Protein backbone atom coordinates (compact mmCIF):
# COMPACT_ATOMS: atom_id res chain seq x y z
CA UNK A 1 0.00 0.00 0.00
CA UNK A 2 1.38 3.40 -1.01
CA UNK A 3 1.80 5.89 1.81
CA UNK A 4 1.15 9.50 0.78
CA UNK A 5 0.74 12.71 2.73
CA UNK A 6 -1.06 15.85 1.70
CA UNK A 7 0.51 18.96 3.18
CA UNK A 8 -1.51 22.15 2.90
CA UNK A 9 -0.28 25.62 3.70
CA UNK A 10 -1.82 28.86 4.92
CA UNK A 11 -5.51 29.59 4.75
CA UNK A 12 -6.40 26.22 3.24
CA UNK A 13 -8.03 25.38 6.57
CA UNK A 14 -10.68 27.90 5.43
CA UNK A 15 -11.70 26.01 2.27
CA UNK A 16 -15.45 26.13 1.87
CA UNK A 17 -15.59 29.52 3.62
CA UNK A 18 -12.84 31.58 2.00
CA UNK A 19 -13.40 33.01 -1.49
CA UNK A 20 -15.75 30.23 -2.65
CA UNK A 21 -15.76 31.69 -6.18
CA UNK A 22 -12.09 30.65 -6.43
CA UNK A 23 -11.80 27.72 -4.01
CA UNK A 24 -15.31 26.24 -3.95
CA UNK A 25 -17.75 25.50 -1.15
CA UNK A 26 -16.35 22.22 0.19
CA UNK A 27 -14.12 21.97 3.24
CA UNK A 28 -10.86 20.10 2.78
CA UNK A 29 -11.73 17.70 5.59
CA UNK A 30 -14.91 16.64 3.75
CA UNK A 31 -12.96 16.30 0.51
CA UNK A 32 -10.26 14.26 2.27
CA UNK A 33 -12.90 11.78 3.43
CA UNK A 34 -13.96 11.35 -0.21
CA UNK A 35 -10.34 10.86 -1.33
CA UNK A 36 -9.85 8.09 1.21
CA UNK A 37 -12.95 6.30 -0.12
CA UNK A 38 -11.91 6.85 -3.74
CA UNK A 39 -8.37 5.52 -3.13
CA UNK A 40 -8.79 2.64 -0.66
CA UNK A 41 -5.41 1.12 -1.59
CA UNK A 42 -3.53 4.31 -0.64
CA UNK A 43 -2.83 5.40 2.90
CA UNK A 44 -3.43 9.15 2.85
CA UNK A 45 -2.24 11.24 5.78
CA UNK A 46 -2.95 14.95 6.08
CA UNK A 47 -1.26 17.96 7.63
CA UNK A 48 -2.11 21.65 7.44
CA UNK A 49 -0.38 24.66 8.94
CA UNK A 50 -0.47 28.41 8.52
CA UNK A 51 3.14 28.62 9.76
CA UNK A 52 6.04 28.40 7.29
CA UNK A 53 8.49 26.76 9.71
CA UNK A 54 5.97 24.09 10.68
CA UNK A 55 5.55 23.18 7.01
CA UNK A 56 9.33 22.88 6.64
CA UNK A 57 9.51 20.72 9.78
CA UNK A 58 6.78 18.41 8.43
CA UNK A 59 8.52 18.09 5.05
CA UNK A 60 11.75 17.11 6.79
CA UNK A 61 9.90 14.70 9.11
CA UNK A 62 8.14 12.77 6.31
CA UNK A 63 10.58 13.38 3.47
CA UNK A 64 12.48 10.14 3.89
CA UNK A 65 9.72 7.71 4.89
CA UNK A 66 6.70 8.32 2.62
CA UNK A 67 6.15 7.22 -0.98
CA UNK A 68 4.98 10.67 -1.98
CA UNK A 69 4.08 14.15 -0.79
CA UNK A 70 1.32 16.28 -2.27
CA UNK A 71 2.17 19.85 -1.34
CA UNK A 72 -0.06 22.87 -1.66
CA UNK A 73 2.09 25.49 0.02
CA UNK A 74 -0.50 28.13 -0.94
CA UNK A 75 0.89 31.68 -0.68
CA UNK A 76 4.25 30.34 0.56
CA UNK A 77 4.73 28.86 -2.91
CA UNK A 78 5.52 32.35 -4.16
CA UNK A 79 7.55 33.62 -1.21
CA UNK A 80 9.35 30.80 0.61
CA UNK A 81 12.84 29.92 -0.46
CA UNK A 82 12.93 27.81 2.72
CA UNK A 83 10.10 25.53 1.62
CA UNK A 84 11.69 25.20 -1.82
CA UNK A 85 14.99 24.24 -0.18
CA UNK A 86 13.23 21.70 2.05
CA UNK A 87 11.65 20.04 -1.00
CA UNK A 88 15.09 19.90 -2.63
CA UNK A 89 16.68 18.41 0.52
CA UNK A 90 14.35 15.42 0.97
CA UNK A 91 14.21 12.12 -0.91
CA UNK A 92 10.45 11.62 -1.14
CA UNK A 93 9.04 12.92 -4.43
CA UNK A 94 6.80 15.97 -4.11
CA UNK A 95 3.96 16.96 -6.42
CA UNK A 96 3.10 20.64 -6.15
CA UNK A 97 -0.65 21.25 -6.26
CA UNK A 98 -2.80 24.35 -6.56
CA UNK A 99 -6.58 24.50 -6.61
CA UNK A 100 -6.70 27.57 -8.84
CA UNK A 101 -4.80 28.26 -12.02
CA UNK A 102 -2.14 30.49 -10.53
CA UNK A 103 -1.22 31.77 -14.00
CA UNK A 104 -4.68 33.28 -14.44
CA UNK A 105 -4.29 35.26 -11.22
CA UNK A 106 -2.03 38.07 -9.98
CA UNK A 107 1.45 38.23 -11.52
CA UNK A 108 3.21 37.46 -8.22
CA UNK A 109 1.47 34.05 -8.19
CA UNK A 110 3.27 33.07 -11.41
CA UNK A 111 6.55 32.46 -9.50
CA UNK A 112 7.05 29.22 -7.55
CA UNK A 113 10.02 28.44 -5.34
CA UNK A 114 8.87 24.80 -5.26
CA UNK A 115 8.34 23.83 -8.91
CA UNK A 116 12.00 23.43 -9.87
CA UNK A 117 12.44 20.82 -7.13
CA UNK A 118 9.08 19.06 -7.54
CA UNK A 119 8.43 15.87 -9.47
CA UNK A 120 5.50 17.66 -11.10
CA UNK A 121 3.01 20.50 -10.82
CA UNK A 122 -0.78 20.26 -11.06
CA UNK A 123 -2.90 23.40 -10.98
CA UNK A 124 -6.24 24.79 -11.95
CA UNK A 125 -8.47 21.74 -11.58
CA UNK A 126 -10.06 22.71 -8.28
CA UNK A 127 -9.93 20.07 -5.59
CA UNK A 128 -9.59 17.45 -8.35
CA UNK A 129 -5.94 18.60 -8.54
CA UNK A 130 -5.37 16.40 -5.46
CA UNK A 131 -6.96 13.38 -7.22
CA UNK A 132 -4.63 13.91 -10.15
CA UNK A 133 -1.64 14.13 -7.82
CA UNK A 134 -2.57 10.85 -6.13
CA UNK A 135 -2.87 9.21 -9.57
CA UNK A 136 0.61 10.47 -10.43
CA UNK A 137 2.08 8.24 -7.71
CA UNK A 138 0.50 5.03 -9.07
Automatic annotation (TrEMBL):
<dbReference type="GO" id="GO:0003855">
    <property type="term" value="F:3-dehydroquinate dehydratase activity"/>
</dbReference>
<feature type="site" description="Transition state stabilizer">
    <location>
        <position position="18"/>
    </location>
</feature>
<dbReference type="Pfam" id="PF01220">
    <property type="entry name" value="DHquinase_II"/>
</dbReference>
<dbReference type="GO" id="GO:0009073">
    <property type="term" value="P:aromatic amino acid family biosynthetic process"/>
</dbReference>
<dbReference type="InterPro" id="IPR036441">
    <property type="entry name" value="DHquinase_II_sf"/>
</dbReference>
<feature type="active site" description="Proton acceptor">
    <location>
        <position position="23"/>
    </location>
</feature>
<keyword id="KW-0028">Amino-acid biosynthesis</keyword>
<feature type="binding site">
    <location>
        <position position="85"/>
    </location>
    <ligand>
        <name>substrate</name>
    </ligand>
</feature>
<dbReference type="InterPro" id="IPR001874">
    <property type="entry name" value="DHquinase_II"/>
</dbReference>
<feature type="binding site">
    <location>
        <position position="72"/>
    </location>
    <ligand>
        <name>substrate</name>
    </ligand>
</feature>
<comment type="pathway">
    <text>Metabolic intermediate biosynthesis; chorismate biosynthesis; chorismate from D-erythrose 4-phosphate and phosphoenolpyruvate: step 3/7.</text>
</comment>
<keyword id="KW-0057">Aromatic amino acid biosynthesis</keyword>
<comment type="similarity">
    <text>Belongs to the type-II 3-dehydroquinase family.</text>
</comment>
<protein>
    <recommendedName>
        <fullName>3-dehydroquinate dehydratase</fullName>
        <ecNumber>4.2.1.10</ecNumber>
    </recommendedName>
</protein>
<keyword id="KW-0456">Lyase</keyword>
<dbReference type="GO" id="GO:0008652">
    <property type="term" value="P:amino acid biosynthetic process"/>
</dbReference>
<feature type="binding site">
    <location>
        <position position="78"/>
    </location>
    <ligand>
        <name>substrate</name>
    </ligand>
</feature>
<dbReference type="GO" id="GO:0019631">
    <property type="term" value="P:quinate catabolic process"/>
</dbReference>
<feature type="binding site">
    <location>
        <begin position="99"/>
        <end position="100"/>
    </location>
    <ligand>
        <name>substrate</name>
    </ligand>
</feature>
<feature type="binding site">
    <location>
        <position position="109"/>
    </location>
    <ligand>
        <name>substrate</name>
    </ligand>
</feature>
<dbReference type="GO" id="GO:0009423">
    <property type="term" value="P:chorismate biosynthetic process"/>
</dbReference>
<comment type="function">
    <text>Catalyzes a trans-dehydration via an enolate intermediate.</text>
</comment>
<comment type="subunit">
    <text>Homododecamer.</text>
</comment>
<feature type="active site" description="Proton donor">
    <location>
        <position position="98"/>
    </location>
</feature>
<dbReference type="InterPro" id="IPR018509">
    <property type="entry name" value="DHquinase_II_CS"/>
</dbReference>
